[in-house]
From TrEMBL:
5-aminolevulinate 2 binds at S270, Y309. This is Delta-aminolevulinic acid dehydratase. The keyword Plastid does not apply. Pathway: Porphyrin-containing compound metabolism; protoporphyrin-IX biosynthesis; coproporphyrinogen-III from 5-aminolevulinate: step 1/4. The gene is hemB. SMART domains: ALAD. The active site is at K191 (schiff-base intermediate with substrate), K244 (schiff-base intermediate with substrate). GO terms for cellular component: cytosol. 5-aminolevulinate 1 binds at R201, R213. NCBIfam families: PRK09283.1.
Amino acid sequence: MDRTRRLRMTKAMRDMVREQHVRIDELIYPLFVIEGKNICSPVESMPGICQYSPDRMWEELERIEQAGIRGILIFGIPDHKDEAGSGAYDEHGIVQKAIRKIKERYPELLVIADVCLCEYTSHGHCGLVKDGVILNDETLPLLAKTAVSYARAGADIVAPSDMMDLRVAAIREALDQNGFSQVPIMAYSAKFASAYYGPFRDAAHSAPGFGDRKTYQMDPANGKEALREVEEDILEGADLIIAKPALAYMDIIKDISNHYNIPIAAYNVSGEYAMVKAAAANGWIDEKKIVMENLTGLKRAGAKMIITYHALDAARWIREEEK
């Protein structure tokens, strides 16, 4: 067929032959909950994103419900941090309290709980630290304890983002032993040591107090290593996996989708969001068109789900197109 333009001549024709569609029920919206009362604190580096105390998070949850979004990824900001990140696995911690409240009012909303210690440790790293070294095996029981506490609070999925070796196996064993064999693990399997995370660390108060995270998050130059990480997590019991960041790593998403039959979530991270917002605010780009093109690209690369701070806007735009 040497006249490919025939299938592009009208919108109805283009819609009919479109290979990929971004659906609202595939969008996952991150939610930041913070200890305290009457807090709705805007994140300066992420326009439109706020930290909410449990008594104010309903404002955002109502918008989520009205948008038709079916899943959220929840992060907690405690009022106390220590060397062991004890707030992460405190049965009365901020995430645990928020999950219980959310499930009381929105039982059908899919709640995914991020499992990591970085927001809760005084040093800001994702594991225990000794003499400046992030300890792997010693951290695993605390991650497992955190995952179980989230499941007990009502989380539908737990999502370990720490990048410690063997953490999926430790969490799977702990969940099963505590009666939560039905709770899936969405593992951050291909998580790179990226500069795109900067605004998130403002939102989650999780910047490392010393050094960086390059000894446990992946080198951005390594693609084949990502496949090894994914394979290991699948063997350890991961039910879904996350690739993070998204836009600069579409080749990773495509490689994973070509090699493994497992649902992939692309995490369209804070720096990617902030750049689009900044350019749109200056009138340099059409925000709607850029966002939808980015999300469509992630679907084309092989993502089944997309975690994105654009979710509320994207859901509105999708509905407008459907009318």
